[in-house]
Amino acid sequence: MSTSTLVRSVAIAAFLVPSIGFAQSAVPVAPIPPTAAPTAPAAAPSGSATPSAATQAAVDQRIRTLQSQLGITEAQLPLWSAFAQAMRDNAASTDALFTQRAASVSAMSATDNMHSYAQIARAYADNTERLATAFDSLYASLSDTQKQAADTLFRQQATAAAQPRTRR
Question: What is the spatial distance between Cα 35 and Cα 58, in angstroms, rounded to a whole number?
Answer without folding.
Answer: 16
